[in-house]
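Quick question: what would this complex look like in 3D?
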Amino acid sequence: MQELPSSVDPARFALCADAIAEAARELALLGWTPATSSNFSMRVNDELAAITISGRDKGRLGREDIMLVDMAGHAVGTHARPSAETGLHTQAYRRLPHAQVVLHTHSRTQSVASRLFAREGVVRLEGWELQKAITGYTTHESVLDIPVFPNTQYMPELVARIDAWLDAGKPLHAYLIDGHGIYTWGADMAEARRHLEALEFLLACELDLRRFSA
Amino acid sequence: MQELPSSVDPARFALCADAIAEAARELALLGWTPATSSNFSMRVNDELAAITISGRDKGRLGREDIMLVDMAGHAVGTHARPSAETGLHTQAYRRLPHAQVVLHTHSRTQSVASRLFAREGVVRLEGWELQKAITGYTTHESVLDIPVFPNTQYMPELVARIDAWLDAGKPLHAYLIDGHGIYTWGADMAEARRHLEALEFLLACELDLRRFSA
Amino acid sequence: MQELPSSVDPARFALCADAIAEAARELALLGWTPATSSNFSMRVNDELAAITISGRDKGRLGREDIMLVDMAGHAVGTHARPSAETGLHTQAYRRLPHAQVVLHTHSRTQSVASRLFAREGVVRLEGWELQKAITGYTTHESVLDIPVFPNTQYMPELVARIDAWLDAGKPLHAYLIDGHGIYTWGADMAEARRHLEALEFLLACELDLRRFSA
Amino acid sequence: MQELPSSVDPARFALCADAIAEAARELALLGWTPATSSNFSMRVNDELAAITISGRDKGRLGREDIMLVDMAGHAVGTHARPSAETGLHTQAYRRLPHAQVVLHTHSRTQSVASRLFAREGVVRLEGWELQKAITGYTTHESVLDIPVFPNTQYMPELVARIDAWLDAGKPLHAYLIDGHGIYTWGADMAEARRHLEALEFLLACELDLRRFSA
């Protein structure tokens, strides 16, 4: 049972939890959350985020599968265990003020692309009309770089690499983790979903093109 | 809110809007309209067409997501913004008197084929029984050429290339835009859908064959 | 409207028509009948078969989309036009006494495999456990040959090639037509569906294996 | 009709049969049980297991399609025929005390991977985050070996090979049979499903990677 701190309006929590659970169910139907993987969160207020509880089947989520964490990634008002990767969600909320929703999925395309581009450290997307689905992009003539970070079970290492990328002032709309999956975000659920859907599509197209030029 | 000009029978507009919304929902389910891309239209009368409003999720369209434009592509009776590519729809209605419905989608197959065949400027389809699904084709021994035009964010440039193709008297049943998607049309929704479905299938088969002959 | 000859029990015709329409709807959902292609039939009695009327959307078939033909392929009791390929269905009923149902589909796998193996004239399947889904096969150590015949719009030519194969005493469980699709059959709808599903699967696996050995 | 021995609580049998039938329907929807292939079982008590009756369409299973077998694989309380591969299920229950559910499917990915890795005799999975979905694995830096055994219609031969692998003390979470499919299991239905889903995903990713490095 989630016990809400007085700073959280129950209606706001319910809205966040329902939006996360609905998105998770729809993304699970696409096969992007295999074997209880993937996690999803939404900013509740300046101090707290709602996030999926670890290990649940993402195709059958309800409100009771969502918990609160503070911006250091600690559980708030519950004994449930947040996902091991909670620190990547809270980092996004700390570093990217416009991010209200963070989505992390594990599709086959995302996993394979992350392995294939791990050595280069980046997937460079160019010449695709659908790059315009990323907020701020207005032409296919732009360049959209998605970094690929090495995987690790020690989250602070990943957090440091992402901090370094941001500290260097490079644009960041999403990132891949090698052999693992993608993280992306948006100013609301619709934008985060649009970013995720566009990136899945673009990575799949890029892999297809490589098959022919190989 | 769409305000109908007196020249438009409300029942006719409703019929067009519902047909467009239904087709959009079904094509979205196939994954051919990723990240709010794609647009669809239907000729309402000699002066006007109904077309999808820009940026809406094509999987959740209703009648209120459809607007009127004149044959120059200007909004009629609404402040909604038509798609940036409206000019390609109205060009089809001006140049191809038999076209009553225009469909533009962005499937992965369409996007990848457009990139792969961009240099040749055309996808040549031969020897497939399903070419007979294109009105006017009666045998697999025919040749079906689908041109691939360079992408641009400046619509008049694209319109001019398509005009040039038509002015040269070459047959045109559909065209691809590089890195982008396909445009096709028909004398009614059923024919336009059949053309789109057949072309998606033929492009996918052609890509598969290339994988083996590579 | 179908007018039934006195030799046909209306209940028997209804049963055949419903079974055909249901199978067509389910196969259309799998994407194996693109753009109104494909056709399906069932033996009604020694002289007649029920078959899909030409050009209908296979995903939306009802009883009224099914007609009767005699074993020479002529329409019986209706002005509807049977499929151009009706002669291949009636040949199966004439030559293969155990065949009660004939299914013809156009999946992408079937179309691509037919092009790829057209020169060899046969797809040879060996070493797959699922060969046992074909009636009469009891081990993966058997050899299952699916001939590939050249496509033609002139049916008697195709009928003659199939007759020649049968006259040579070679086993025939299904055949492909180049650039076109597959024909298979069974002693009832369940067996015909099982054969079709197994062959689609085996052709897809065979294509996948070729991709790696290429 | 299944007649239950006095040692079996009818409610326990009903629970097992319903869980098996539900899993079978869901896996069939994914296309992993083509042409009536595949079989599924659950341990009822120390002496008996519930298992799918041979040859039924896995997409339409109900409680009446499930039967009891003893740990030697003989039918109990029914004249129905258990699957030819029942011996592989009962071997798992005899040798792996934690296994409560055994799932065997035939997806295209599983079949193709089994052929491709048959000569090496094993699929080695390394560097994938999703390896953590297998109980006992806590990092992508582990190695997960899935053996590939030669196919045979003579079950005791397969049983002996699997016994030999276990007797050698090698870890076994699943195995492939060449040209055939996969076997995996779990301490309950949820764990067995998670293992199956993760392995299908990992095999598909591994095949994709091979396409690029070929």
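Answer marked as accepted. The beta strands of chain D are 39-43, 48-52, 66-70, 75-76, 101-105, 122-126, 143-149, 174-177, 181-186.
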